[in-house]
From TrEMBL, chain A:
This is Rab proteins geranylgeranyltransferase component A. Residues 519-553 are annotated as: Disordered. InterPro entries: FAD/NAD-bd_sf, GDP_dissociation_inhibitor, Rab_escort. The lineage of its organism: Eukaryota, Metazoa, Ecdysozoa, Arthropoda, Hexapoda. It comes from the Eukaryota. The keyword Amino-acid biosynthesis does not apply.
Automatic annotation (TrEMBL), chain B:
Belongs to the protein prenyltransferase subunit alpha family. Its EC number is 2.5.1.60. The keyword RNA-binding does not apply. PANTHER family: GERANYLGERANYL TRANSFERASE TYPE-2 SUBUNIT ALPHA, PROTEIN FARNESYLTRANSFERASE ALPHA SUBUNIT/RAB GERANYLGERANYL TRANSFERASE ALPHA SUBUNIT. One of its GO terms (biological process) is prenylation. This is Geranylgeranyl transferase type-2 subunit alpha. One of its GO terms (cellular component) is Rab-protein geranylgeranyltransferase complex. GO terms for molecular function: Rab geranylgeranyltransferase activity. Catalyzes the transfer of a geranyl-geranyl moiety from geranyl-geranyl pyrophosphate to cysteines occuring in specific C-terminal amino acid sequences. Gene3D superfamilies: Protein prenylyltransferase (1.25.40.120). It catalyses: geranylgeranyl diphosphate + L-cysteinyl-[protein] = S-geranylgeranyl-L-cysteinyl-[protein] + diphosphate.
TrEMBL record, chain C:
It is an enzyme of class 3 (hydrolase). GO terms for molecular function: G protein activity; GTP binding. Pfam families: Ras. The keyword Transport applies. This is small monomeric GTPase. It comes from the Eukaryota. Its EC number is 3.6.5.2. GO terms for cellular component: cytosol; late endosome; lysosome; phagocytic vesicle membrane; plasma membrane. It comes from Aquatica leii. It is a lipid-anchor. It is found in: Cell membrane; Cytoplasmic vesicle, Phagosome membrane. InterPro entries: P-loop_NTPase, Small_GTP-bd, Small_GTPase. The lineage of its organism: Eukaryota, Metazoa, Ecdysozoa, Arthropoda, Hexapoda. Its cofactor is Mg(2+).
C-alpha cells in the first residue's frame, strides 16, 4: 500500500516541532492545502518524547540522503538546495547506566549500596536492572523539551480558544520547591499555602501576602523610582526578610539577583495570575509527556485535511532564479507549493549564515525515589536558585501519575543556560539532590539514586530573529527555548501564520462533533419544515475557505 | 457540498435545544408523576410531609419487631435514606432532609454510621461551606469510633485548604473544650489566618470564641495584644484589628488611663474608616469618654 | 488524548472509543457513515473537521455510546500515533473483500494498534475483523470467507463478519458484535485500572478561586 503524495499544495511544512505543527494546524484550519512532512519517523523533532528504548538509540546525525540525479525533475532556471544542516541539532554529551545489565551481576553492587546506608531504615529497593527498565521501555515518555503550562498562559488560552483542549489532558504541578539554606523547601505560593506554612512567622505571612498583592494590583506609582533598580532591591526596601526575598525572587518571580524590578514584577504577575484556576500551583503538565502537544496540533491539522507523512526521504528544496520557493523533492517525486515553513534543523546548509549564540544545557535522569519524599506522589517544579556563581536551574520531577514513567520510578529533567557543558553546568544540583556512591551515607535524608542519566545540549535559537532574506516564501521555525511554557513558540507560530495569511483568523474554535452536520443526516427531525432555508443559512456561516475537500486518492 | 464542514447555526442549535427541553419536560412530568404516586416530596422542605413519613416509619418500626421481619424493616429504612439522598442531591441545604436522614439512622438499630461519616468527608471535600453537612458530621461523629486527634486533623486539613470558612472554624470549636495544652496551638493557627488575611472575617470570630474561654490567661492576651499592634503597623486601616484591640484592652486594662486613650484612638480611627458603623463607634466612644 | 475523560457525551451511557483500521480505500469511512447516519456515498472519505462521530446503540437493554474515530487519512502514510490510539476500547480491523493486499495488511494494522494503543502485554484485546464490500461480484472477490476465518483463528480473534456499507448489509450487526465482544472481554474488568485519576480538563474549572493568592474572599 504505497501511496503517492499529491503534488500540489498551498503550504509545505517540513519538520514536526511545536512551531511547525501550530502553523500547519492554523493553515489547515482555514482551508489551506497543507503537506506536513518529516524525515524522522516520529513526531516532534527536538520537541519529541521518546520511550526508553528509542532515546537510547537516538541518532543525532542528520543523514543527508543525496545521491540520485534529480536534475530531470527540475525545470529550467531552477536550483535544488539540499535539506538539513548540522548547526542546529542537539548534541549528546553522555548517556550512562548506573545499573547492572542483568540480575546476576547485581549482588555485588547491591551489597555496596546497603553497606553505605546500613544505619538508615531504607525501604529496600527492588533491584532494578537495565534489562528490567528496558522491559518497561514503553511506560516511559521522556521529553527532549519538557514544558509546563501556566494555567492562564497563552498556551492554555490558545488550547481553549481553538478547542484543541479537547484532545489533551493535563496534570497539575502539585508543589513548587526551592533550595534554601542547604535544603529543599516548599515555596508557599497560594493564600492557603501562606496560611498553612510553618516555615514563615505570622508577621512574614502578612508581609508576603501584602507584597504579592501589591505586585498584582500595584499601579505605576508602586514601582516608581525602581525603573532602573533590581527586583531584589525593591523587595529589600519592602522590608521583607531574607527567606521571603528568597521565595519571591528565586521561585515566584523565577528571577536572579540581577533581574530588573519591572521584569520581576511582570514575572510575579505571570505566576500569581495563573493560581487558583486548576490545582494548587499555577502550572500544568501534559499527560504522557510534552511530545503530545505537537501531536495534538498535527491531529487537528489532519482532521482539517492536512496530509501527514513521516519518515520521508527529503531530497531537496526547489527554488527558481529569483530565489522563490517552488517545491520540494521527496524521494523521486516533485511536490509543488507556494510557501515553505521549516524547522531550523532542516534549513539548507548553504543558507545557514548564522549560528546559535547560546546553548541550553539539559539532563534527564531516571531515579528510584523522589527528591523530597512525601506520603503521596508529587509532580514537582524545583527552581534552583543561583548559588556560588552558578546559574539558576529549572528542575522538573515527574512520577508515574504523569504517564511518563513506570510506577516507583521518577524522571527528573534539568536545564539551565549553557556555560561550559551540560555535566559541568548541572553538577552542583546533581550533587545536592542525588545519592553518590563515594560519600558514605551519614545523612538522615535518603537521597534518590540515579539509575540512568542523559546529558545533552541544544542551541537556543529563539532570539536569532530568523528571517530568510535570500529566499522568498520561506519561513524558519526556531528550536526549543528556555521559557517554561510555550509562549515564545506560540508567538512565533502566529507571526509566521500572519505573514503568510494576513487576512485570516489564527486557529478559530474548531466545532465539536455534535455541532457538525454530517451530510445525509436526516435534518428534518431537527428542523421541521424550514429545512432548506436553514441549510442555506448554515452554508453562509461556514468558513468560506473550507469549501474543498482534498481527495488524496 | 461534499466534505464541507457545516456547523449548526445558533438558530438550529436553539431548535435542537428546544427539542431537548421538550423531551426533558416529558421526562420530568413522568418523573413527577412517579414521585407524587409514591408520596415523595417534590419540595424537600415541606416538613409536614416529612413528619408524616416519620409517623409511617414509626408504625413500620413498631410493627416489625419480630425477628423474621427485620429484613423488611431494614429495606424500608434503606429506602428512606435513599429518598433523603435524592432530595439532598437536589438541594444540599435542605434542613428537613438532613434532619430526616439523621432521624431515620437513629431509629435504625443497624445503621451504618461509618458509611455516613465517610460520606460526610467526601461531601465536605467537594463543598466545605455546607454547614448542614458539618452539623451532620458532628452528630455522626459520636456514633463512630473516630479519635479526637483524627478529627482535629481533618478540621486542620480543611482549614488549611480554605480558611475563609465560618463552618469549618465553628466545627472546630465544637470538637472539644480548650485545654491548657491546646490553647497555644489554637492561638497559633488563628493568628496565622489573621496575619495571612486580616480582612477575612471568619478567623476573627474564631478568635473571639477562643478569647471567651477562661482558660486563655492574661499572658496569652498580652501576647496577642502585642501581635495585634504589630499587625496594625502593617495594616493600619483594617477595622477587624482595631475592634479586636479595643476588645482586648477593655478586657485587660479597662481602668488604666493610658490604655483608655489607646482605645479612644482606635474608635476615632474606626469612625473614619468604617462609615457604615460610624454610629456604633461614636456610641462606644461616648461611653468611654463619660466613664473616664 | 484520553477521549474518555474529555469528550464524554452528556448522557450517562457507557462510552466506548472505537477505532476502525485498515488500508485506505477499504471503506472505513463508508462503514462509519452507514452506521452513524445510514448514508452511503461510494466516494465517501474523511469529512473535513470531523474528529469522530458518536452513535448510541442498545444491547441487552443497556445503552452505549460508540465514539468512532476517523483516521482522517492519516493511515495512508502511517502517521497515526499514540494520541489517536490511546484509550481505545474496540478495534475494528477492516479489509476489502476484493483486495487481497488489504487483507494481508491486517497483520500490520493489528501490530501497529497493539504497539501504539499501549495494550498491556498478555491481556486480551477485543478486536473484530470486518471484510467490507460483500456486495462485489463473485468473480471480483479475492478473499474467501474461509481465509478470513482461518486468519482470525490464527490470530486468536473471536469475531469476524463480512459487511457491505453500500447495501447496508451487516453494518449494524458488525458494531453490535463489536460491543458484545467487548462485553465479554476481560479488558472490561481492567477498564478503570489503566486510566489516571485527577487529571485536568482545561474546559472545566477545577479549583476554587478562594484558595488563590490575593483574591481572598473577605467579609462574606
Amino acid at each position: 500500500m504505497d501511496y503517492e503524495l499529491p503534488s500540489e499544495f498551498d503550504l509545505i511544512v517540513v519538520g514536526t516541532g511545536v512551531i511547525e505543527s501550530i502553523v500547519a494546524a492554523a493553515a489547515s484550519r482555514i482551508g489551506k492545502r497543507v503537506l506536513h512532512i518529516d524525515s524522522n519517523n516520529y513526531y516532534g523533532g527536538l520537541w519529541a518524547s521518546f520511550n526508553l528504548d528509542s532515546i537510547n538509540k537516538l541518532v543525532t546525525e542528520n543523514e543527508l540522503r543525496n545521491e540520485l540525479d534529480k536534475k530531470d525533475l527540475l525545470k529550467e532556471n531552477e536550483t535544488l538546495y539540499s535539506v538539513g544542516n548540522n548547526a542546529f541539532n542537539l548534541k549528546i554529551q553522555s548517556q550512562t547506566w548506573n545499573l547492572p545489565e542483568k540480575l546476576e551481576e547485581q549482588n555485588e553492587v547491591q551489597t555496596e549500596t546497603v553497606d553505605a546506608k546500613e544505619d538508615v531504615d531504607v525501604k529496600v529497593d527492588e533491584s532494578w536492572t537495565q534489562e528490567k527498565l528496558l522491559k518497561l521501555s514503553r511506560k516511559f515518555n521522556i521529553d527532549l523539551t519538557p514544558k509546563l503550562h501556566f494555567a492562564r498562559g497563552d498556551f492554555v488560552e490558545l488550547l481553549i480558544a481553538s478547542n484543541i483542549a479537547r484532545y489533551s489532558e493535563f496534570r497539575s504541578v502539585s508543589r513548587v520547591l526551592t533550595w534554601l539554606n542547604g535544603q529543599l523547601e516548599v515555596v508557599p505560593c497560594s493564600r492557603s499555602d501562606v496560611f498553612s506554612s510553618n516555615k514563615v512567622s505570622v508577621i512574614e505571612k502578612r508581609m508576603l501576602m501584602k507584597l504579592l498583592t501589591s505586585c498584582v494590583d500595584g499601579d505605576e506609582k508602586e514601582f516608581a523610582g525602581y525603573e532602573n533598580k533590581t527586583f531584589q532591591s525593591y523587595l529589600k526596601d519592602r522590608k521583607l526578610t531574607g527567606n521571603l526575598i528568597h521565595y519571591v525572587l528565586y521561585a515566584i518571580a523565577m528571577s536572579t539577583d540581577d533581574t530588573m524590578c519591572l521584569e520581576g514584577v511582570k514575572n510575579t504577575k505571570r505566576f500569581l495570575g495563573s493560581l487558583g484556576r486548576y490545582g494548587k500551583t499555577p502550572f500544568l503538565y501534559s499527560m504522557y509527556g510534552s511530545g503530545e502537544i505537537t501531536q495534538a496540533f498535527c491531529r487537528l491539522s489532519a482532521v482539517f485535511g492536512g496530509i501527514y507523512a513521516l519518515n520521508q526521504p527529503l531530497n531537496g528544496f526547489i527554488f527558481n532564479n529569483e530565489h522563490t520557493f517552488r517545491g520540494v523533492l521527496c524521494g523521486q517525486q516533485r511536490i509543488n507549493a507556494e510557501h515553505l515553513v521549516m524547522s531550523l534543523e532542516k534549513v539548507p546548509q548553504s543558507v545557514v549564515d548564522f549560528s546559535a549564540k547560546e546553548y541550553i544545557s539539559r539532563a534527564i535522569f531516571i531515579t528510584d525515589r523522589s527528591i523530597m519524599e512525601s506520603d503521596k506522589e508529587h509532580l514537582t517544579l524545583l527552581l534552583f536558585p543561583s548559588i556560588n556563581g552558578k546559574r539558576t536551574c529549572t528542575i522538573l520531577e515527574l512520577g508515574s501519575l504523569t504517564g511518563t514513567c513506570p510506577k516507583d520510578l521518577y524522571i527528573v529533567h534539568m536545564f539551565t543556560k549553557q556555560y561550559t557543558s551540560p555535566e559541568e553546568d548541572l553538577k552542583h544540583c546533581v550533587e545536592k539532590l542525588f545519592y553518590k556512591q563515594e560519600e558514605s551515607g551519614e545523612s538522615e535524608i535518603i537521597l534518590p539514586n540515579i539509575l540512568w542519566s542523559f546529558y545533552y545540549s541544544v542551541p537556543n535559537t529563539f532570539n536569532l530573529g530568523l528571517k530568510c532574506e535570500q529566499l522568498h516564501n520561506v519561513y524558519m521555525c526556531s528550536g526549543p527555548d528556555m521559557d517554561l511554557d510555550y509562549d515564545p513558540a506560540i508567538a512565533q507560530a502566529k507571526e509566521i501564520f500572519t505573514s503568510i495569511y494576513p487576512d485570516f483568523e489564527f486557529l478559530p474554535r474548531a466545532p465539536d462533533p455534535e455541532e457538525i452536520i454530517i451530510e445525509g443526516e436526516d435534518n428534518n427531525n431537527v428542523l421541521n419544515d424550514d429545512n432548506n432555508e436553514v441549510e442555506e443559512h448554515s452554508d453562509n456561516r461556514t468558513e468560506e475557505n473550507l469549501q474543498t475537500q482534498r481527495n488524496i486518492d | 457540498m461534499h466534505g464541507r464542514l457545516k456547523v449548526r447555526t445558533t438558530e438550529e442549535q436553539q431548535l435542537l435545544k428546544r427539542k431537548e427541553q421538550q423531551k426533558k419536560l416529558i421526562a420530568y412530568r413522568m418523573g413527577m408523576k412517579q414521585i407524587l404516586d409514591s408520596r415523595k416530596p417534590v419540595n424537600p422542605d415541606i416538613y409536614t410531609l416529612w413528619n408524616y413519613r416519620k409517623e409511617v416509619a414509626l408504625l413500620e418500626i413498631n410493627s416489625n419487631i419480630n425477628i423474621e421481619e427485620t429484613e423488611k424493616l431494614s429495606n424500608f429504612l434503606e429506602n428512606e435514606l435513599k429518598l433523603t439522598e435524592q432530595c439532598l442531591l437536589a438541594n444540599p441545604k435542605s434542613y428537613s432532609s438532613w434532619h430526616h436522614r439523621y432521624w431515620i439512622l437513629e431509629h435504625n438499630p443497624e445503621a451504618n454510621w461509618k458509611k455516613e461519616f465517610d460520606l460526610c468527608t467526601k461531601y465536605l471535600t467537594m463543598d466545605d461551606r455546607n454547614f448542614h453537612c458539618w452539623d451532620f458530621r458532628r452528630l455522626v461523629l459520636n456514633k463512630v469510633g473516630i479519635t479526637l486527634g483524627d478529627e482535629i486533623k481533618f478540621s486542620t486539613d480543611r482549614i488549611n485548604i480554605n480558611f475563609s470558612n465560618y463552618s469549618s472554624w465553628h466545627y472546630r470549636s465544637t470538637l472539644k473544650a480548650l485545654t491548657e495544652e491546646c490553647v497555644e496551638d489554637e492561638l497559633t493557627i488563628v493568628k496565622s489566618a489573621l496575619f495571612t488575611d486580616p480582612a477575612d472575617s471568619s478567623a476573627w470570630f474564631y478568635l473571639r470564641w477562643i478569647l471567651s474561654d477562661p482558660i486563655v490567661n492574661t499572658e496569652h492576651k498580652e501576647d496577642l495584644l502585642d501581635n495585634l499592634n504589630q499587625l496594625l503597623e502593617i495594616e493600619p486601616d483594617c477595622r477587624w484589628i482595631l475592634i479586636a484591640k479595643c476588645w482586648l484592652i477593655q478586657d485587660l486594662h479597662a481602668d488604666k488611663s493610658n490604655y483608655v486613650k489607646e482605645q479612644i484612638d482606635c474608635y476615632r480611627k474606626l469612625e473614619e474608616i468604617d462609615l457604615l458603623r460610624k454610629g456604633h463607634y461614636s456610641d462606644k466612644l461616648n461611653k468611654l469618654l463619660s466613664a473616664n | 488524548m484520553s477521549a474518555r475523560v474529555n469528550m464524554r457525551p452528556a448522557n450517562k451511557n457507557t462510552l466506548l472509543k472505537v477505532v476502525i483500521l485498515g488500508d485506505g480505500g477499504v471503506g472505513k469511512s463508508c462503514l462509519m457513515n452507514r452506521f452513524v447516519s445510514n448514508h452511503f456515498d461510494e466516494h465517501s472519505f474523511h469529512t473535513i473537521g470531523v474528529e469522530f462521530l458518536n452513535k448510541d446503540i442498545e444491547i441487552d437493554n443497556e445503552n452505549y455510546t460508540l465514539q468512532i474515530w476517523d483516521t482522517a487519512g492519516q493511515e495512508r502514510f502511517k502517521t497515526l500515533r499514540t494520541p489517536f490510539y490511546r484509550g481505545s476500547d474496540i478495534c475494528m480491523l477492516t479489509y476489502a473483500i476484493d483486495d487481497k493486499s488489504s487483507f494481508r495488511n491486517m497483520n500490520m494494522w493489528k501490530n501497529e494498534f497493539l504497539y501504539y494503543a499501549d495494550i498491556k502485554e498478555n491481556t486480551y484485546f477485543p478486536f473484530i475483523v470486518v471484510g467490507n464490500k460483500s456486495d462485489v461480484l463473485v468473480e471480483e472477490r479475492e478473499v474467501s470467507q474461509l481465509e478470513l476465518e482461518t486468519w482470525c483463528n490464527e490470530n486468536g480473534i473471536a469475531s469476524c463478519i463480512e459487511t457491505s456499507a453500500k447495501s447496508a448489509s451487516n453494518v449494524q450487526e458488525a458494531f453490535k458484535m463489536a460491543v458484545q465482544h467487548w462485553l465479554r472481554a476481560e479488558i472490561r474488568a481492567d477498564r478503570t485500572e489503566c486510566t489516571y485519576s485527577d487529571t485536568v480538563d482545561l474546559n472545566k474549572k477545577q479549583s476554587d478561586s478562594r484558595s488563590s493568592c490575593c483574591t481572598g474572599a473577605s467579609e462574606d
